[in-house]
Design a protein that fits this description.
Number of domains: 3
Radius of gyration: 28 Å
CATH superfamily of the largest domain: Divalent-metal-dependent TIM barrel enzymes
Bound molecules: 3,4-dihydroxybenzoic acid, magnesium ion
CATH architecture of the largest domain: Alpha-Beta Barrel
Largest sheet: 9 strands, mixed
Oligomer: single chain
Number of strands: 25
Length: about 625
Amino acid sequence: MPNAIATVSLRGTLEEKLKAAADAGFDSVEIFENDLIGSALRPAQVRGVMSDLGLHCSLYQPFRDFEGMPGDLRTRVMDRAERKFDLMGELGTDRILVCSNCSPVSLGERARIVDDFRELGERAAARGILVGYEALAWGRHVNDHRDVWSIVKEVDNPAIGIILDSFHSLARRVPSESIRDIPGDKIVYVQLADAPLLDMDLLYWSRHFRNLPGQGGLDLTGYVAEILRTGYEGPLSLEIFNDRFRSISSRLVAQDGRRSLESVRDAAKRLLDRPTDMPAPQAPLGAEFVEFTAAGDDMARLGDTFGTLGFSHVGSHRTKKVTRWRQGNVNLVINAEPKGFARSYRIVHGTSICAIGVRVKDAQAVMDRAAALGIRAYSPEGRPGRMAMPALRGVGGSLVYLVEDDGAEALWTREFDAVPAPDLTDDARVCNIDHLAAVVHNDEFLSWQLYWRALFGLEGRDANDVIDPSGLVHSQALQSPGGAFRLTLNASDARETLSSRFLAQGMGGGFQHVAFASDDLFTTAAVTRQRGAAMLEISENYYDDLAARFGFEEEAATRMEQAGMLYDEDGDGNAYRQLYSRAFDKLFFFEFVERCGTYTGYGAPNAGVRLAAQNRFRDVQEVME
Ligand SMILES: O=C(O)c1ccc(O)c(O)c1
Ligand SMILES: [Mg+2]
């Protein structure tokens, strides 16, 4: 089943779009009429460019306002179709999409619609052309693929079939099982698009917010599974109208497009229990370590910071300038090597988080799936086979190491000399990594989501718009099905938000904070304070509001205020407590959280308060400098 993409999905001139599609390995393209009309290339030249790139045109679209036109307009519309058939001959394509009529003058009478398609079918057959009828979700008389299928069935002409577009079907909540009524050989073409679940006018939603399968909230897997079930063997084609995709790198969108198609096809086959070409996604079983790159003074300063947060230096790498810090089940690594990846990352991004290690059951299977999805493996140059752990390139350039669950401890003992841990009496009660938070460019926001969803099968959870004093920050949580691995992605277009400053200062997207899970956050607060940790102070007003919202006694509110703690509850009384450290060199910071009961969120109501506090501290620092 070949992969295709509509030119409308990509930025640039028609030549640039074709090049991006070819480079990403697509078999064919849908030529969107406006892209051709605006191009300086004649249709035959476009055909030549496609053929040089190893592409062909699998669909010409759209042909609008066809069926049910009254009076003379009907003659005009047939004439227009003949001209487009000529053009298709020059382009070298035999398929055209007719979308359901939106014209206010069109007639909805079914017999007329059937007649019109019969005549079009005869004209198309004479030219060796196949016509596919697509229901636009906002079509004037026809807006549901079930109606299109019933018309196509009645037309009963071999040159007339149906085109299915997941957006139109799923946005109107048409059950995907209805596709079972359609024989595969009557499906002329299939277009796929996902979209975030928004309560919005259908046309506006479709023209501005579509995204790639796996980036939105529609059930594309179920949709594609129903299509596979029909026996359809034609292209799966991406038709993505998206404001951002029109302005960002066509290379990125095309590459992600390929990844999304491979991933959704794989998921659909799994749903049908059919054999697939790649290993199943494996959700991380947890984060095994977070690796920081820091050299010189920063290495010592960062180690000191870890110490104040309750960590102990427990290991030193046998051959490298790398130290291991531990608390509970959390490992932090400082890499101060004068060469290699950590150094390169440090040169670009400064002292920062350069890699994470995730625990998986079968690392090789993850590597194989990554390869099938076009995700590059990391191999240090000139040192083949020396990798203690396989690693993958993340979206922002940092690495994701894969640690096999049962081999984690052996790996540490093999690579690190133990450093006798001091006899600690002041346990800060950190048990695990609760979540990692990345800041990413808004242009790469969907790309990061696709990476984690397609490769690791993470699920999208809370999406929030958070108010930073300097603008809006979009936040999306992703997690493994059981919640053992959690990630939040944050992006902002505003210039001065904390997220944007991180991007500017750190030269691009990456991990901005690590949240540690504590089983007793008041003790964590007391111990870190006693160890001299620089923690974030929260406004007094917050605690007045907290007491009012949750009916706290003054004593309880004061206790939280003294600890600098944030608090939230879900509707079922499950609670969440949070503490934040101040940022290390204004770049990255740490959070401690305690989840009580089955609280699954991230304290969204507190995010604005925290950002305001961080913004206040930023002003103080800048004045002092
Ligand atoms: O938004 C539109 O008009 C439009 C045109 C052609 C399509 O295939 C489609 O899905 C939408
Ligand atoms: Mg469409």
